Amino acid sequence: MPELPEVETVRRGLEPALVGARFSRVTLRRPNLRFAFPERFAERLEGRRVRELARRAKYLTAHLDSGETLVMHLGMSGRFDVALPDGRNLSPGDFYLEGALGTPKHDHVVMAMETGATITYNDVRRFGFMDLVPTDGLAASRHFAGMGIEPLSEALTGEAVARLFRHRITPLKSALLDQRLIAGLGNIYVCEALHRAGLHPEAPAGSLATGSGRPTPKARLLARVIRDVLTEAVAAGGSTLRDYAHTDGSAGAFQHAFRVYDRVGEPCSAPGCRGVIGRMVQAGRSTFYCAACQPAPARGVGTRRAALGAAT
DNA sequence: GATCCCCTGAGC
DNA sequence: GCTCAGGGGATC
Protein backbone atom coordinates (compact mmCIF):
# COMPACT_ATOMS: atom_id res chain seq x y z
CA MET A 1 0.00 0.00 0.00
CA PRO A 2 2.86 2.24 0.29
CA GLU A 3 3.12 5.14 -2.07
CA LEU A 4 6.19 7.28 -2.42
CA PRO A 5 6.16 8.85 1.08
CA GLU A 6 5.73 5.47 2.74
CA VAL A 7 8.50 3.92 0.66
CA GLU A 8 10.79 6.83 1.45
CA THR A 9 10.03 6.41 5.16
CA VAL A 10 10.84 2.70 4.92
CA ARG A 11 14.08 3.56 3.13
CA ARG A 12 15.13 5.83 5.97
CA GLY A 13 14.27 3.14 8.48
CA LEU A 14 16.27 0.49 6.65
CA GLU A 15 19.27 2.66 5.94
CA PRO A 16 21.03 2.40 9.32
CA ALA A 17 20.70 -1.38 9.38
CA LEU A 18 21.53 -1.99 5.74
CA VAL A 19 24.04 0.49 4.40
CA GLY A 20 27.60 -0.57 5.06
CA ALA A 21 26.41 -3.91 6.40
CA ARG A 22 26.99 -7.35 4.95
CA PHE A 23 24.38 -10.07 4.51
CA SER A 24 25.33 -13.15 6.48
CA ARG A 25 22.29 -15.33 6.00
CA VAL A 26 19.23 -14.82 3.81
CA THR A 27 16.25 -17.12 4.30
CA LEU A 28 13.32 -17.42 1.91
CA ARG A 29 10.16 -18.87 3.40
CA ARG A 30 8.56 -19.39 0.01
CA PRO A 31 9.75 -19.54 -3.61
CA ASN A 32 7.97 -16.42 -4.78
CA LEU A 33 6.19 -13.23 -3.89
CA ARG A 34 4.44 -11.62 -6.82
CA PHE A 35 7.14 -13.15 -8.99
CA ALA A 36 9.57 -15.97 -8.35
CA PHE A 37 12.74 -14.88 -6.60
CA PRO A 38 15.65 -14.75 -9.05
CA GLU A 39 17.97 -17.73 -9.37
CA ARG A 40 20.20 -18.34 -6.37
CA PHE A 41 18.78 -15.23 -4.72
CA ALA A 42 20.06 -15.90 -1.22
CA GLU A 43 23.53 -16.96 -2.37
CA ARG A 44 23.92 -13.81 -4.45
CA LEU A 45 23.21 -11.71 -1.37
CA GLU A 46 25.12 -13.59 1.28
CA GLY A 47 28.57 -12.16 1.88
CA ARG A 48 27.79 -9.03 -0.10
CA ARG A 49 27.93 -5.58 1.40
CA VAL A 50 25.35 -2.84 0.77
CA ARG A 51 26.93 0.35 -0.48
CA GLU A 52 23.83 2.50 -0.83
CA LEU A 53 20.08 2.30 -0.37
CA ALA A 54 18.13 4.49 -2.75
CA ARG A 55 14.54 5.01 -3.76
CA ARG A 56 13.12 5.60 -7.21
CA ALA A 57 9.36 6.11 -7.35
CA LYS A 58 7.96 3.30 -5.19
CA TYR A 59 11.03 1.08 -5.58
CA LEU A 60 13.90 0.58 -3.19
CA THR A 61 17.31 -0.24 -4.62
CA ALA A 62 20.19 -1.59 -2.55
CA HIS A 63 23.47 -1.33 -4.45
CA LEU A 64 25.77 -4.22 -3.57
CA ASP A 65 29.53 -4.53 -3.75
CA SER A 66 29.05 -7.42 -6.19
CA GLY A 67 27.94 -5.11 -8.98
CA GLU A 68 24.34 -6.18 -8.58
CA THR A 69 21.45 -4.18 -7.18
CA LEU A 70 18.71 -5.61 -5.01
CA VAL A 71 15.43 -4.16 -6.29
CA MET A 72 12.51 -4.24 -3.89
CA HIS A 73 8.87 -3.27 -4.29
CA LEU A 74 6.39 -3.41 -1.42
CA GLY A 75 3.27 -3.89 -3.50
CA MET A 76 0.13 -3.22 -1.47
CA SER A 77 1.00 -4.73 1.87
CA GLY A 78 4.76 -5.18 2.05
CA ARG A 79 6.61 -4.03 5.15
CA PHE A 80 10.03 -4.38 6.66
CA ASP A 81 10.84 -4.93 10.29
CA VAL A 82 14.30 -4.07 11.53
CA ALA A 83 15.60 -5.63 14.71
CA LEU A 84 18.93 -4.09 15.70
CA PRO A 85 21.36 -6.19 17.74
CA ASP A 86 21.12 -3.92 20.76
CA GLY A 87 17.39 -4.45 20.87
CA ARG A 88 16.44 -1.09 19.49
CA ASN A 89 13.54 -1.22 17.07
CA LEU A 90 12.75 -4.63 18.39
CA SER A 91 9.09 -4.12 19.03
CA PRO A 92 7.10 -7.23 18.23
CA GLY A 93 4.22 -5.94 20.25
CA ASP A 94 3.88 -3.10 17.81
CA PHE A 95 4.96 -4.86 14.69
CA TYR A 96 2.77 -7.88 15.12
CA LEU A 97 -0.51 -6.09 15.32
CA GLU A 98 -3.61 -7.96 16.31
CA GLY A 99 -5.05 -10.24 13.70
CA ALA A 100 -3.20 -11.87 10.90
CA LEU A 101 -1.72 -8.73 9.38
CA GLY A 102 1.89 -8.48 10.25
CA THR A 103 2.06 -11.88 11.88
CA PRO A 104 4.98 -14.25 11.38
CA LYS A 105 2.76 -16.23 9.02
CA HIS A 106 3.55 -13.65 6.37
CA ASP A 107 7.25 -13.19 7.08
CA HIS A 108 8.60 -14.24 3.69
CA VAL A 109 12.21 -13.10 3.71
CA VAL A 110 14.56 -12.93 6.68
CA MET A 111 17.89 -11.18 6.19
CA ALA A 112 20.45 -11.65 8.93
CA MET A 113 23.26 -9.12 8.75
CA GLU A 114 26.78 -9.61 10.02
CA THR A 115 26.18 -6.75 12.42
CA GLY A 116 23.62 -8.87 14.20
CA ALA A 117 20.68 -6.89 12.84
CA THR A 118 17.78 -8.84 11.39
CA ILE A 119 15.64 -7.44 8.61
CA THR A 120 12.35 -9.22 7.97
CA TYR A 121 10.10 -8.71 4.96
CA ASN A 122 6.43 -9.31 5.67
CA ASP A 123 3.76 -9.13 2.97
CA VAL A 124 0.22 -10.41 3.48
CA ARG A 125 -0.97 -10.06 -0.09
CA ARG A 126 2.35 -10.83 -1.72
CA PHE A 127 2.04 -8.17 -4.42
CA GLY A 128 5.55 -7.06 -3.59
CA PHE A 129 8.66 -8.55 -5.13
CA MET A 130 12.44 -8.61 -5.03
CA ASP A 131 14.86 -8.90 -7.91
CA LEU A 132 18.59 -8.71 -8.59
CA VAL A 133 19.83 -6.81 -11.61
CA PRO A 134 23.26 -5.60 -12.72
CA THR A 135 23.80 -2.14 -11.30
CA ASP A 136 25.17 -0.76 -14.55
CA GLY A 137 21.99 -1.85 -16.31
CA LEU A 138 19.58 -0.68 -13.67
CA ALA A 139 18.07 2.24 -15.56
CA ALA A 140 17.50 0.04 -18.60
CA SER A 141 16.07 -2.85 -16.60
CA ARG A 142 12.46 -3.88 -16.93
CA HIS A 143 11.68 -2.18 -13.65
CA PHE A 144 12.91 1.26 -14.60
CA ALA A 145 12.93 1.54 -18.37
CA GLY A 146 10.23 3.95 -19.43
CA MET A 147 9.57 5.14 -15.93
CA GLY A 148 8.30 8.70 -15.58
CA ILE A 149 9.79 11.67 -13.80
CA GLU A 150 10.47 11.64 -10.08
CA PRO A 151 7.82 13.83 -8.44
CA LEU A 152 10.08 15.06 -5.64
CA SER A 153 12.78 16.14 -8.05
CA GLU A 154 13.30 19.41 -9.85
CA ALA A 155 11.91 17.69 -12.94
CA LEU A 156 8.34 18.13 -11.76
CA THR A 157 7.37 21.57 -13.04
CA GLY A 158 4.32 23.08 -14.65
CA GLU A 159 6.16 22.83 -17.94
CA ALA A 160 6.73 19.10 -17.40
CA VAL A 161 3.09 18.51 -16.54
CA ALA A 162 2.00 20.36 -19.67
CA ARG A 163 4.46 18.45 -21.83
CA LEU A 164 3.51 15.06 -20.42
CA PHE A 165 -0.25 15.64 -20.42
CA ARG A 166 -0.62 17.59 -23.64
CA HIS A 167 -3.08 16.07 -26.10
CA ARG A 168 -4.17 13.40 -23.66
CA ILE A 169 -7.88 12.96 -23.20
CA THR A 170 -7.42 10.50 -20.36
CA PRO A 171 -8.80 11.77 -17.04
CA LEU A 172 -6.35 13.62 -14.82
CA LYS A 173 -6.66 10.90 -12.17
CA SER A 174 -5.52 8.23 -14.62
CA ALA A 175 -2.72 10.36 -16.02
CA LEU A 176 -1.36 11.04 -12.54
CA LEU A 177 -1.44 7.34 -11.67
CA ASP A 178 0.39 6.45 -14.89
CA GLN A 179 3.90 5.63 -13.71
CA ARG A 180 5.27 6.19 -17.23
CA LEU A 181 4.51 9.90 -16.89
CA ILE A 182 5.12 10.71 -13.23
CA ALA A 183 6.39 7.81 -11.15
CA GLY A 184 5.54 7.36 -7.50
CA LEU A 185 2.04 8.73 -7.06
CA GLY A 186 -0.71 6.40 -5.90
CA ASN A 187 -4.38 6.64 -5.12
CA ILE A 188 -4.12 8.63 -1.90
CA TYR A 189 -1.79 11.37 -2.98
CA VAL A 190 -3.38 11.78 -6.39
CA CYS A 191 -6.75 12.40 -4.71
CA GLU A 192 -5.16 14.79 -2.25
CA ALA A 193 -3.20 16.70 -4.90
CA LEU A 194 -6.21 17.11 -7.20
CA HIS A 195 -8.24 18.48 -4.32
CA ARG A 196 -5.52 20.94 -3.34
CA ALA A 197 -5.29 22.11 -6.93
CA GLY A 198 -9.06 22.43 -7.31
CA LEU A 199 -9.04 20.10 -10.29
CA HIS A 200 -11.77 17.60 -11.11
CA PRO A 201 -10.46 14.02 -11.36
CA GLU A 202 -12.28 13.50 -14.64
CA ALA A 203 -11.00 16.61 -16.35
CA PRO A 204 -8.97 15.65 -19.41
CA ALA A 205 -5.25 15.66 -18.68
CA GLY A 206 -4.62 17.65 -21.83
CA SER A 207 -6.59 20.56 -20.45
CA LEU A 208 -3.49 21.51 -18.42
CA ALA A 209 -1.63 22.49 -21.57
CA THR A 210 -2.46 25.40 -23.79
CA GLY A 211 -2.81 24.97 -27.52
CA SER A 212 0.86 25.78 -27.92
CA GLY A 213 1.85 23.31 -25.22
CA ARG A 214 2.50 25.82 -22.48
CA PRO A 215 1.41 25.06 -18.94
CA THR A 216 -1.82 26.57 -17.74
CA PRO A 217 -1.86 28.18 -14.30
CA LYS A 218 -3.51 25.01 -13.03
CA ALA A 219 -0.61 22.92 -14.39
CA ARG A 220 1.85 24.98 -12.38
CA LEU A 221 -0.39 24.75 -9.34
CA LEU A 222 -0.73 20.99 -9.69
CA ALA A 223 3.02 20.51 -9.93
CA ARG A 224 3.44 22.58 -6.79
CA VAL A 225 0.79 20.83 -4.71
CA ILE A 226 2.09 17.39 -5.69
CA ARG A 227 5.48 18.37 -4.30
CA ASP A 228 3.80 19.90 -1.24
CA VAL A 229 1.64 16.93 -0.36
CA LEU A 230 4.46 14.43 -0.87
CA THR A 231 6.89 16.53 1.13
CA GLU A 232 4.44 16.92 3.98
CA ALA A 233 3.66 13.21 3.93
CA VAL A 234 7.33 12.24 4.05
CA ALA A 235 7.80 14.60 6.99
CA ALA A 236 4.88 12.90 8.74
CA GLY A 237 6.35 9.46 8.18
CA GLY A 238 3.77 8.49 5.59
CA SER A 239 0.19 7.40 6.09
CA THR A 240 -0.90 4.35 8.03
CA LEU A 241 -4.30 2.95 7.06
CA ARG A 242 -4.10 -0.79 7.44
CA ASP A 243 -0.88 -2.62 6.77
CA TYR A 244 1.76 0.00 6.41
CA ALA A 245 4.14 0.47 9.31
CA HIS A 246 7.57 1.93 9.85
CA THR A 247 10.52 -0.39 10.20
CA ASP A 248 10.14 -0.18 13.97
CA GLY A 249 6.45 -1.02 13.79
CA SER A 250 5.21 2.46 14.53
CA ALA A 251 2.63 4.23 12.40
CA GLY A 252 2.76 7.18 10.04
CA ALA A 253 0.73 10.26 10.78
CA PHE A 254 -0.22 11.80 7.46
CA GLN A 255 -3.61 10.03 7.38
CA HIS A 256 -4.72 12.67 9.88
CA ALA A 257 -3.98 15.32 7.27
CA PHE A 258 -6.10 13.79 4.51
CA ARG A 259 -8.52 16.34 3.09
CA VAL A 260 -10.50 13.97 0.88
CA TYR A 261 -9.13 10.42 0.96
CA ASP A 262 -11.53 8.06 2.75
CA ARG A 263 -13.62 11.00 3.99
CA VAL A 264 -16.88 10.43 2.12
CA GLY A 265 -19.72 12.48 3.55
CA GLU A 266 -17.52 14.75 5.59
CA PRO A 267 -17.55 18.48 4.99
CA CYS A 268 -14.84 19.81 2.71
CA SER A 269 -12.05 21.43 4.66
CA ALA A 270 -11.13 23.97 2.02
CA PRO A 271 -11.49 27.51 3.37
CA GLY A 272 -14.94 28.85 2.63
CA CYS A 273 -16.06 25.68 0.86
CA ARG A 274 -19.43 24.28 1.86
CA GLY A 275 -19.08 21.10 -0.17
CA VAL A 276 -19.14 17.52 1.02
CA ILE A 277 -16.58 14.91 0.11
CA GLY A 278 -17.86 12.42 -2.43
CA ARG A 279 -16.61 9.23 -3.97
CA MET A 280 -16.57 7.94 -7.50
CA VAL A 281 -14.90 5.00 -9.21
CA GLN A 282 -12.31 5.49 -11.91
CA ALA A 283 -10.45 2.61 -13.49
CA GLY A 284 -11.83 0.40 -10.78
CA ARG A 285 -10.44 2.45 -7.95
CA SER A 286 -12.03 4.89 -5.55
CA THR A 287 -11.61 8.58 -6.18
CA PHE A 288 -12.42 11.00 -3.37
CA TYR A 289 -13.12 14.61 -4.23
CA CYS A 290 -15.19 17.67 -3.46
CA ALA A 291 -17.61 18.55 -6.25
CA ALA A 292 -17.81 22.10 -4.96
CA CYS A 293 -14.17 23.13 -5.10
CA GLN A 294 -13.19 20.64 -7.81
CA PRO A 295 -15.84 21.64 -10.33
CA ALA A 296 -16.71 19.20 -13.09
CA PRO A 297 -15.14 19.99 -16.43
CA ALA A 298 -17.25 21.71 -19.00
CA ARG A 299 -19.50 19.77 -21.32
CA GLY A 300 -17.66 17.94 -23.99
CA VAL A 301 -15.28 16.41 -21.58
CA GLY A 302 -13.57 13.43 -23.00
CA THR A 303 -13.75 14.72 -26.50
CA ARG A 304 -10.70 15.54 -28.45
CA ARG A 305 -11.86 19.08 -28.65
CA ALA A 306 -12.04 19.39 -24.91
CA ALA A 307 -8.63 17.88 -24.49
CA LEU A 308 -6.93 20.12 -26.96
CA GLY A 309 -9.12 22.98 -26.17
CA ALA A 310 -8.82 25.83 -24.39
CA ALA A 311 -8.41 24.84 -21.09
CA THR A 312 -8.62 27.80 -19.06
C1' DG B 1 -10.97 4.09 -21.50
C1' DA B 2 -12.95 -0.31 -18.45
C1' DT B 3 -12.30 -4.96 -16.49
C1' DC B 4 -10.23 -8.66 -14.42
C1' DC B 5 -6.08 -10.60 -12.43
C1' DC B 6 -2.56 -11.58 -8.75
C1' DC B 7 -3.48 -12.42 -2.91
C1' DT B 8 -5.27 -12.26 1.90
C1' DG B 9 -7.96 -10.20 5.31
C1' DA B 10 -11.37 -6.83 7.31
C1' DG B 11 -15.82 -5.23 7.67
C1' DC B 12 -20.53 -5.44 6.76
C1' DG C 1 -21.92 -14.23 1.61
C1' DC C 2 -20.39 -9.77 -0.49
C1' DT C 3 -17.26 -5.52 -1.33
C1' DC C 4 -13.24 -3.19 -0.52
C1' DA C 5 -8.09 -2.27 0.11
C1' DG C 6 -1.47 2.89 -0.46
C1' DG C 7 0.06 -1.44 -6.83
C1' DG C 8 0.68 -2.77 -11.31
C1' DG C 9 0.17 -5.53 -15.40
C1' DA C 10 -2.41 -7.87 -19.08
C1' DT C 11 -6.26 -7.95 -22.18
C1' DC C 12 -10.05 -6.16 -24.95
Automatic annotation (TrEMBL):
<protein>
    <recommendedName>
        <fullName>Formamidopyrimidine-DNA glycosylase</fullName>
        <ecNumber>3.2.2.23</ecNumber>
        <ecNumber>4.2.99.18</ecNumber>
    </recommendedName>
</protein>
<dbReference type="GO" id="GO:0006284">
    <property type="term" value="P:base-excision repair"/>
</dbReference>
<keyword id="KW-0511">Multifunctional enzyme</keyword>
<dbReference type="GO" id="GO:0008270">
    <property type="term" value="F:zinc ion binding"/>
</dbReference>
<dbReference type="GO" id="GO:0034039">
    <property type="term" value="F:8-oxo-7,8-dihydroguanine DNA N-glycosylase activity"/>
</dbReference>
<keyword id="KW-0227">DNA damage</keyword>
<keyword id="KW-0456">Lyase</keyword>
<feature type="active site" description="Proton donor; for beta-elimination activity">
    <location>
        <position position="58"/>
    </location>
</feature>
<keyword id="KW-0863">Zinc-finger</keyword>
<keyword id="KW-0234">DNA repair</keyword>
<dbReference type="InterPro" id="IPR035937">
    <property type="entry name" value="FPG_N"/>
</dbReference>
<dbReference type="Pfam" id="PF06831">
    <property type="entry name" value="H2TH"/>
</dbReference>
<comment type="similarity">
    <text>Belongs to the FPG family.</text>
</comment>
<dbReference type="GO" id="GO:0140078">
    <property type="term" value="F:class I DNA-(apurinic or apyrimidinic site) endonuclease activity"/>
</dbReference>
<feature type="binding site">
    <location>
        <position position="168"/>
    </location>
    <ligand>
        <name>DNA</name>
    </ligand>
</feature>
<comment type="subunit">
    <text>Monomer.</text>
</comment>
<dbReference type="Pfam" id="PF06827">
    <property type="entry name" value="zf-FPG_IleRS"/>
</dbReference>
<feature type="active site" description="Proton donor">
    <location>
        <position position="3"/>
    </location>
</feature>
<comment type="function">
    <text>Involved in base excision repair of DNA damaged by oxidation or by mutagenic agents. Acts as DNA glycosylase that recognizes and removes damaged bases. Has a preference for oxidized purines, such as 7,8-dihydro-8-oxoguanine (8-oxoG). Has AP (apurinic/apyrimidinic) lyase activity and introduces nicks in the DNA strand. Cleaves the DNA backbone by beta-delta elimination to generate a single-strand break at the site of the removed base with both 3'- and 5'-phosphates.</text>
</comment>
<keyword id="KW-0326">Glycosidase</keyword>
<keyword id="KW-0862">Zinc</keyword>
<feature type="active site" description="Proton donor; for delta-elimination activity">
    <location>
        <position position="285"/>
    </location>
</feature>
<dbReference type="InterPro" id="IPR010979">
    <property type="entry name" value="Ribosomal_uS13-like_H2TH"/>
</dbReference>
<keyword id="KW-0238">DNA-binding</keyword>
<keyword id="KW-0378">Hydrolase</keyword>
<dbReference type="InterPro" id="IPR020629">
    <property type="entry name" value="FPG_Glyclase"/>
</dbReference>
<dbReference type="Pfam" id="PF01149">
    <property type="entry name" value="Fapy_DNA_glyco"/>
</dbReference>
<dbReference type="InterPro" id="IPR015886">
    <property type="entry name" value="H2TH_FPG"/>
</dbReference>
<dbReference type="InterPro" id="IPR000214">
    <property type="entry name" value="Znf_DNA_glyclase/AP_lyase"/>
</dbReference>
<feature type="domain" description="FPG-type">
    <location>
        <begin position="259"/>
        <end position="295"/>
    </location>
</feature>
<feature type="binding site">
    <location>
        <position position="125"/>
    </location>
    <ligand>
        <name>DNA</name>
    </ligand>
</feature>
<dbReference type="InterPro" id="IPR010663">
    <property type="entry name" value="Znf_FPG/IleRS"/>
</dbReference>
<dbReference type="InterPro" id="IPR012319">
    <property type="entry name" value="FPG_cat"/>
</dbReference>
<keyword id="KW-0479">Metal-binding</keyword>
<feature type="binding site">
    <location>
        <position position="106"/>
    </location>
    <ligand>
        <name>DNA</name>
    </ligand>
</feature>
<feature type="domain" description="Formamidopyrimidine-DNA glycosylase catalytic">
    <location>
        <begin position="2"/>
        <end position="128"/>
    </location>
</feature>
<dbReference type="GO" id="GO:0003684">
    <property type="term" value="F:damaged DNA binding"/>
</dbReference>
<feature type="active site" description="Schiff-base intermediate with DNA">
    <location>
        <position position="2"/>
    </location>
</feature>
